[in-house]
# Entry
Amino acid sequence: MSTVTPPAVRADERALETRAQGTGPSTAYWTGFFIVVALLAVSPFVLPEFWQRFMTEILIWGLFAMSSDILIGYTGMVSFGHSAFFGLGMYGAAAALLMVRPPNLWLAMLVGLVAAAVIAMFVAFFSTRLRDIYFSITTLVFSQIFYVIIFTWTEVTGGENGLTFRQPPFGIPGVFTVPFTRNGIHWFVLAVVVVSYLVLRRVTQSPFGMVLQSIRENEPRTRAIGYHVERYKIVSVMLSGLFAGLAGVLYAIQNKFAAPDFVLFLISGEAVIFNVMGGIGTLVGPVAGAAFFLLMKEVFSRVFYEYYLIPVGIIFTLMVIFVPQGLLGAWRRHLNR
Amino acid sequence: MIPFDQVLVQIVNGLVSGMILALVASGLTLIFGIMDIVNFAHGDLFMLGAYVGTTAFITTGNFWLALLVSVLTMAVLGAVLQATALRPLLGRDPLTTILATFGLSLIIQNYALWQYGPVPRKILEPVGGHFKLFYIEYPWYRLVIAFMSAAIIGGLYLFMKYGKHGIWIRATTQDRVMAEAMGIPVPWVHTVVFAIGAAMAAAAGVLFGPTVGVNHAMGFDFTLRAFVVVVVGGMGNLGGSILASIFISLLESLATIWVSPAQAVIVSFVALILTLLVRPTGLFVPTPK
# Structure
């Protein structure tokens, strides 16, 4: 049933689960979901070329934001080092595309995901022993360690210049292969993001997800009930890191490069901004936050050029103070049903 | 075999940069101890202080006057930032304050880029001259930095220990509610502590300015190192942070004998992770009962 089986499924867990399923998602929710997905799917036909790319980028950064929402919104741990997973996904995909001839899309995704998962396991092992600010600082420090390694290990990672490669064709091995068109890559990204959303949504509603939320609400009590809190936290960080890595792979495939800038802490900071702006603990909120942020960046860069982060930073700080629940926070209950 | 003189030179280097770091970190730990705020913008206050110092230096031509101007400007700015952005967050989840100060960090960093441009700026050393330290000519100014930092930190210590307002600050750190009940204006203590922290960061920035070019990205590096130091020294523990600054800087300096300075940072990161795993309360504090 659930994607990750907890060590022991207890009676109260089952009760939580039946309650979660009893109220079930409303038809309004699914109608909205299909309308949004359909709009995203036809968007390449209506939008000019620049905005087509923009939509694809929103989807990728949205997936990245969603992945960190698992930690921030559902487990209550603010990760300031999510760029490490994104970057490792990127470099993993790059390694597979550069070393295997002919380049294979699925292999790139697999290698990227494995790289992100291994790193996530390593980071999770150390960082989950700490909570609150200490967790944030530890994740930040880990991401900086990976940044320094990638930045200085020029022979392997290309150092400051990063790595460039050709886009792999889309296809099923032995059946067909077609090169990606611009629309093709958009639909591919859309499909991956939608499936990831459904998987993550299912996970947050599973008994496992319920335990994560109970850790967020009251950690000592969760421990007192008998859950092995550390183990849940480790799996939570790994799950989150895996999907962040997936976003990195998609970004690498779309843009045909991997660069150390994407391992830098600013990217982690952006993930946190997406979450706060969109509304934590909603999964779609962070996607909306990413869209809002990228749109602001686009608009403000036309007025303020490279200093767009000044107005964006002001809006972000004001939102933290006055709208702490974010853009979609008001619908949080509705979106989680 | 490691050359002995090289190790000694690196130890002197480590002590000097340790004192600068201690100046930044003691402000950070003071702010954390009193308000539970992890100030993500602390390194950026350091950076902006250095820039204000360059402007003041160009107008006045006097380094010590520039130091004073920068310290006062940043103290006022710190008070304004605390009163506008952080005071409304009092009593909310400490993580919200990380987010708010992260927003401030973005604003300050990009403001500096906009105002001063991407080319690093240099402040002239107020004290010239070198002395011979084994195989290199060591600038006297670096020792001046260490002594100035020690003097400022010593001043802070005396103020905290004997000054009336210093006692207010310590009282607020120990028990916010009780301090308020005794008539201490706690919201103002918070603002003043943030201002002191900003001023110390600015002083560190101006002192550090002549040794490297001042650029808009140097703040984050210091934020991160100050975080490491504050955690290793024990959150909110002033003495611990100072010892940890020197310890971490010595580690990094000695590591540069074998690896590049960029990679030496990893050594302090590993020290942080080990500290968190073995003694999460900090290396330089008595074991909590």
Chain B touches chain A through 39 residues (CB under 8 Å). The longest strand of chain B covers residues 130-133. The beta strands of chain B are 130-133, 136-139.
